[in-house]
From TrEMBL:
This is Cell division ATP-binding protein FtsE. The lineage of its organism: Bacteria, Bacillati, Actinomycetota, Actinomycetes, Micrococcales. The keyword Transmembrane does not apply. Keywords: ATP-binding, Cell cycle, Cell division, Nucleotide-binding. GO terms for molecular function: ATP binding. GO terms for biological process: cell division. Residues 2-238 form the ABC transporter domain. Residues 234-245 have a biased composition (Basic and acidic residues). SUPFAM superfamilies: P-loop containing nucleoside triphosphate hydrolases. Residues 234-285 are annotated as: Disordered. It comes from Mobilicoccus caccae.
Amino acid sequence: MIRFDHVVKTYPRSTRPALDGIDLTVEAGEFVFLVGPSGSGKSTIVRLALCEEKVTSGGLTVAGRDLTTIRRRNVPALRREVGTVFQDFRLLPDKTVGQNVAYVLHVLGETPEAVRSAVPAALETVGLAGLEHRLPHQLSGGEQQRVAIARALVRRPTLLLADEPTGNLDPRTSLELVRLLEEINASGTTVVMATHDDRIVDTLRRRVVQLEAGRIVRDEAAGLYLRAPELTAEKTSGEPVRADSEVVPDASPPPTAAEADPLTSKEPVNTIDQGGPAATDGPQR
Ligand SMILES: Nc1ncnc2c1ncn2[C@@H]1O[C@H](COP(=O)(O)OP(=O)(O)OP(=O)(O)O)[C@@H](O)[C@H]1O
């Protein structure tokens, strides 16, 4: 489902690579936690898999597509297969729950009849039947994140990428949400979740891939959340290190329609277009 092959990612104007030789294979049907301290590269893995960024070198295949050579016109098809959930929910604040979930189907050109049946079904799956007409601000954080999951599920993704989906939720709500992700996984969707939440990782005992400074330092089936000794050392030295379980409130403004869902959001960065290679930061071989 996902294959990183010696992937190096160096962002423009960075001197250090964010990912430094990543080899990672995720098979269809797996549930994988990505863990590691802030800045270790978890979100970069998610962004590369979504084709929001391109690898600097190495190979990357997601859902059968080679993302080092994918053409711009083929990126929407990739994102149709890959559902995403983020820490800050990214719901459209002035649209109802139903409209938030339906939006992506309209973009995909689904018929009104198809939308009318798919939206309640997706909301039922996430336990939000009957809340279709509420606005996001009339929901709890956990409910808002369920809407985001319904929005991801409604297009039946084969892969679900969740980047800190519980980062703004209390522990009980977080666990309920991750149980929902487990159910989704049990029904066949591959799930990859980046998280700082040690309780969740220790409760679920799934595969754990641990990153440190852009490298995989642990890849363990049925793993626990372990902090690296370096992080502990940094904490005791008084350096300002963000605690792994710290909840960081999201202060960013609400998303626009285009930002709310990656299917319709960021143009694929530096994706090879029909006309030829991208201008900057393409694969350097
Ligand atoms: N757009 C960017 N431009 C330059 N550097 C970036 C960019 N995005 C991330 N980085 C750097 O890449 C490294 C990895 O960042 P990344 O966001 O992948 O880490 P993370 O493990 O997801 O962190 P967190 O847990 O805080 O979300 C960090 O050093 C970060 O500063």
